[in-house]
User: Fold these one by one.
Assistant:
Number 1:
Amino acid sequence: MGNARAVAQLYVSAFGFSVTGYSGPETGRPERVSYVLEQGAIRLVVTAALDPADAVWDHVRLHGDGVRGLSFAVDDADAAFNAAVAHGATPVQSPAADTDERGKVVHAAVAGYGDTLHVFTERRHPGFAPGFSADGLIADRRAPRVGLEHIDHVVGNVGEGDLDRWVEFYRDVFGFEEMTHFDRDQISTEYSALRSTVMTNGRGVTMPINEPAPGRKRSQIQEYLDAYRGPGVQHVALHTPDIVTAVDAMTARGVRCLTPPPSYYDQARQRMAGLGDELAWEDLARLGIMVDREGDGYLLQVFTEPLGDRPTLFVEIIERHGAEGFGEGNFKALFEAIEREQGRRGNL
Ligand code: FE2
């Protein structure tokens, strides 16, 4: 982030996170500042560099605000790192321990898509990590509660022709399995097209990967790659048990979401016949929440506008009821909403 304090404040004021940790010059780390943000089981860390020699400095200069690293909790960071490298991962940071009187945290990192580090974190510490303080931290208790609970999935965008290589990476290096694949004829509009494969460890870590496909005009995935100047995280989906309350609160706090075309809800009610009678359809339409059915299950989802200055990283809010997909039935409606925004930016 260019300004970690301002971005942390955004996550607090707009999404209902609490800041639970801080490190920076005051805690003995002069080269960068970090804020730890928590809500439910979700933990985000926003960091800005103070020293041009810090790696975050170059990351922000090239990519703007975005996801620098994805952290995977492991029992043994040494073992995870060594196994990943033995299976073909590119090492970025060898295992290193931070220790204080309360415990230790061991981090190691390998290269993911683009400059997105994949970090193994072994935490044997009651707090976040040594060197983090909980003094004077910010939370907005006046605004309505949002109620986000856990990370549902994290989506990456990679270059055209690179999807299969990254599918192999998650299979060979991380031991993930392919959950679903969508080809361009399944996800395309007149303009945008993409191919997508969903990789999962089968225990709650789910990582869809997209690549752009040729269409009549520039794919939204290509717009991302151009703006981010390379592959990276496209969106992070956060699960809530009550999406109407969450999106109502987020909207009151100033978050703007993409809204499907008005005709969407007539079609959605037909698709949900016999299943969605108890849904608060007026609230869903008012808030732009989309619905997707899978047999006897369904999911509700909404996508924010990009969070920073570039059309790159955004957040999805999702509520699942026995559905394991990602809203494929909504892709077309969503694409059309994204393309309206893309057109306004002159990028179609
Ligand atoms: Fe998603």
Number 2:
Amino acid sequence: MIIIMKPGVTQASILSVTGYIQSHGLDVHISAGKEVTIIGVIGNKSLISSDSLASMKDVERILPVTESYKLANRKFHPDPTSITVGNAVIGPDTLTVMAGPCAIEGEEQLLTIAKTVKECGATFLRGGAYKPRTSPYAFQGLEEEGLRYMQKASYETGLATICEIVSPEAIETAHKYVDMIQIGARNMQNFILLKEAGRSRMPVLLKRGLSATIEEWLNAAEYIIAEGNPNVVLCERGIRTFETATRNTLDISAVPVLKDKTHLPVIVDPSHATGSYRYVPSMARAAVACGADGLMIEVHNDPSCALSDGPQSLNFEKFKALMEELSPYCALVNRRKDALS
Ligand code: PEP
Ligand code: MN
């Protein structure tokens, strides 16, 4: 349930409400907005009486929250969340572009890509060091060596960095080198990994599972936040449907649906969603137009020779053109296409 307090509520009234809830063994989440303060109740609400709460000073209304996710729920936190990662921000005022290779292949290659995507206006460098490949014989990533290259590229460019982790142990390693961790589609419901990511306090990009519903996805985010880490960004990357013309089906409607259901930032990955560089620009434009807070785009210096996901990677020229094309779309939705100062 959420308790909506009257405008101008006193601290003493808030404390008596939270004190009553906590004395019954439940947790509270306070969202103090510009106009109203909302107190979210987390736990078994049959232990408290809504009549008692309703009669307390400065309580305006009590509303049930039927969804199983609470901390990720927009009802608990009506204002959209902004998350700062290194020099970058992901939130309602900007369009944050994360760009880079599917897999980190070498130090020079990564640095060249980093410099180029920065010049084009990206604020994040992405790159896979631990690659969860469908085939065990495909390139599995450079692991810690790759993370070191990410750190170096970040020092040289000022870009924030993001890498996927596939095990709880890798979170500790990633923490030494990069700014944000990514939990990939294949691990969206790996609850041990989600809890460890929650305990780590590192910003987390949580990709949608290949066949996860939005509710399952938000519950996965809740696992991370419930461990004390509120820095979660959601990434729609396409879901599996009967359609085979694209690698996955980009569920573009997930963006406005999520904007209703959660305060967490939402970004879109048109590269994994479509599987083809041809469709990346149009889906990127659609994502910005429908309210996404950012994009994740695979960019490679020579896609035809990429060790992973070459067919969906943009070369430098195509990435530059896309970034230019996005400007009027950003203006349309009142977002700054963010660039590093
Ligand atoms: C990736 O971003 O490198 C990746 C593997 O994506 P996904 O988990 O969405 O398949
Ligand atoms: Mn990839």
